[in-house]
Amino acid sequence: MVTPFLPDDEKIPAIREALPSTAAGIYLNTGTAGPLPRETAHAMAEAEAWDLRTGRADLNFYKDSVERKAEARASIAAVLGTDPSHMALTHATTDGMNVATWAVDWRAGDVAVTTNLEHPGGLGPLWAVRERYGVELKIADIGMGADPANVLATFDRAIVPGTRLVSLSHVTWATGACLPIREIAELAHSRGALVAIDGAQAVGAIPVAVEELGADFYAVPGQKWLLGPEGMGAVYCADSVLDRPRLAFAGYSSFESMDLAAEAKLWPDARRFEGVGFHGPSVLGFARSVAWLSMFVGWQWIHDRIARMAGETAAMLADAPGVEVLTPRENMAGLVTFRIAGWKSTSALRELSQRTLCIARTIPPLDAIRISVGFFNTDGELRRFRDGVALVAETTPETIPHRAHIEVLRGGVD
Ligand SMILES: Cc1ncc(COP(=O)(O)O)c(C=O)c1O
Question: Ligand 1: residues whose CB is within 6 Å?
Answer without folding.
Answer: 31, 92-94, 119, 121-122, 169, 173, 198, 200-201, 221, 233
